[in-house]
Specification:
The protein is about 30% helix and about 25% strand. Strand 25 and strand 26 form a beta hairpin. Helix 6 packs across helix 7 and helix 16 packs antiparallel against helix 17. The structure holds ligand 8PZ.
Length: about 550
């Protein structure tokens, strides 16, 4: 429990605690010499950045940003992978009252252009060796490195209309897949993200001395959870370069050389490690924890992980970018026989899950599926420049619509179990998770249908023989269109979609089957694909289940 402020200085300090940077760099939580960021980009090249160094770098970056005289709330595109400097830079944006928008250096140019048009940032920042060029004015451009921030072209902006950042201001914007074919910008305020961190830290998932490997790229908020969990606990974050995560030996080398005690990531990061390097994994006896989020962990793989790391605490974190996350539940070890679905627990302290039926009624009986609605101080402020989508997701409290309070309508189904915890039970819409990446099938379908040779397209997840899902698409070509093959369609998608949204398999078909309601019959497509692959009939159900 935090102490009550006694003086006006204490009160002002308490308000400052509601900003991302001051909360995470609060000296009360760590000692200056303790490691804050540990990196190992190549064999034998481990570097440690202490809290004192991270704080100094953050201030140096913040001074350079403040000198640009931008108004609070101006957006900064941060195009980088996670590392000590990138972390200092996002904290510096917070310190300077600016909103960071993390973007992968692998983002296709048309998608970056779309983001630039959408959020109209004041500044684009990349690493010293970043290759982005020809960025349009009036955008300012800068590069960052261990030596500080170098402004290449100052932003062209008017005099600031406001001066004082408030905790209700946006701290960051994260872009996720959108149903309408445009990515949706999830705006999170300082107050919301700090409220989330406070709720998360109450679970005691990490402590000083921990080294938390973060396997998610910076543009996903999972990496922000890891940074918050590590710095908020006085522990160190270990950003694993995205190019190494999918290579079991490289991943294990990073974990070994950095002395990682916890590994956080989507379930699919474990698949290749379990298959190819079980002994090397079991030899990492310093691993005390695993936290996963983003999708259900296939139970056979989870059991295998428990066997190899018998002493590790495994935490199932459930939630969506719109509230960063929602709940943390310890996975029982061993998993009881007959377990079909994992518990997602209950919402973190300060938040509450409510289940709502299709008829709008709040469900109180155990075992009856309903849509998760989340009441929380950590909800997003809205989708950037999209009031319609915001109103559809931040909805009046179903229990007391008169109050003006909004809750998050998640699109996720769950059932309450007799012990009061919840079990995840799929989606209400066509959002799917491919290797933990959120994909709106509609966004993929729109891109395919934009191809001059295509008249209709349906995307869906299909099971891979070795486990996991791949994104597949069925495309109908126009009769009079110039010839196009699956390779052309894939290349067309890759021009503007992130790689995880490019269908791995594209089939050309004469027509798309439809249901009695005239909707594309994805279950029939999945069944057809399973039949073609000679798979067991229940595989088709699994594929259709994620995309009702
Ligand atoms: C799940 C689960 C789960 C999510 N079991 N389905 C942020 C910070 C740390 C950890 C995780 C996050 C999330 N924002 C990650 C994430 O996946 N966000 S998302 O917005 O891209 O997707 C959210 C959706 O993924 C949820 O609505 C669920 O459908 C699904 N999901 N966690 C089963 N533990």
């Amino acid at each position: 429990m935090s102490q009550q402020p006694h003086t006006s200085a204490d009160a002002a300090a308490a308000v400052r605690q509601d900003f991302l940077h001051s909360f995470l760099l609060d000296p009360a939580r760590h000692s200056p010499d303790a490691p804050a960021v540990v990196e190992s980009p190549g064999a034998g090249r481990t570097t440690v950045t202490s809290y004192a160094q991270l704080t100094a770098l953050t201030s140096q970056f913040a001074d350079a940003l403040t000198a640009l005289d931008l108004e609070p709330g101006a957006r900064v595109i941060l195009e980088a992978d996670a590392g000590a400097e990138a972390i200092a830079l996002l904290l510096a944006c917070s310190q300077a009252g600016l909103v960071f928008v993390p973007v992968s250096p692998q983002t296709p140019r048309p998608r970056l252009d779309l983001l630039l048009e959408t959020v109209r940032p004041a500044l684009h920042v990349q690493e010293l060796n970043g290759s982005r060029s020809d960025l349009p004015r009036p955008l300012g451009t800068a590069r960052f490195g261990p030596g500080g921030l170098t402004v290449e072209r100052a932003p062209e902006t008017g005099p600031p209309r406001r001066r004082t950042p408030c905790p209700t201001d946006p701290a960051y914007i994260i872009f996720t897949s959108g149903t309408t074919g445009r990515p949706k910008g999830v705006v999170m305020s300082h107050r919301a993200v700090v409220a989330f961190y406070r709720g998360m830290l109450a679970h005691g998932i990490a402590g000083p001395g921990d080294r938390i490997a973060s396997t998610s790229p910076l543009q996903f908020d999972f990496s922000l959870l890891n940074i918050g969990l590590a710095l908020g606990s006085g522990a160190a974050v270990v950003p694993v370069p995205p190019s190494l995560v999918r290579w079991p030996r490289h991943l294990l080398r990073v974990l070994r050389e950095t002395g990682a005690t916890q590994v956080n990531g989507v379930p699919s990061i474990w698949r290749q490690v379990l298959r190819h390097e079980p002994r090397r994994l079991a030899a990492l006896t310093g691993l005390r924890g695993v936290l996963f989020c983003g999708e259900e962990f296939p139970l056979p793989e989870l059991r295998h992980l428990q066997e190899l790391l018998p002493a590790a605490r495994i935490v199932n974190c459930y939630g969506a970018t719109e509230s960063m996350a929602c709940s943390f539940a310890d996975v029982p070890n061993p998993l009881p026989e007959g377990t079909e679905r994992l518990s997602i627990g209950v919402a973190h302290p300060g938040a509450e899950i409510l289940l709502v039926g299709a008829d709008g009624r709040v469900i109180v009986e155990p075992g009856v599926p309903g849509e998760i609605h989340l009441r929380s101080p950590a909800l997003f402020s809205g989708y950037w420049d999209d009031p319609e989508a915001t109103a559809a997701t931040l909805v009046p409290d179903p229990l007391c619509p008169q109050s003006g309070q909004r809750v998050l309508r998640s699109g996720d189904l769950a059932v309450r179990r007799p012990d009061g915890t919840y079990a995840f039970a799929g989606r209400t819409d066509s959002q799917v998770q491919i290797n933990g990446n959120r994909v709106e099938l509609g966004e993929v379908e729109r891109r395919l249908a934009d191809h001059p040779a295509a008249t209709a397209a349906a995307a869906l997840p299909l099971p891979l023989p070795g486990g996991g899902l791949q994104l597949a698409a069925f495309v109908v070509l126009a009769e009079d269109a110039p010839p196009a093959g699956a390779g052309d369609l894939r290349a067309f998608c890759a021009e503007s979609l992130p790689s995880y949204m490019v269908p791995q398999e594209i089939r050309l078909v004469d027509r798309l089957p439809v249901t009695a309601h005239g909707k594309v019959d994805r279950a029939a497509l999945a069944a057809q694909a399973a039949e073609d692959a000679g798979a067991a009939p229940d595989t088709a159900d699994a594929a259709a289940g994620g995309a009702r």
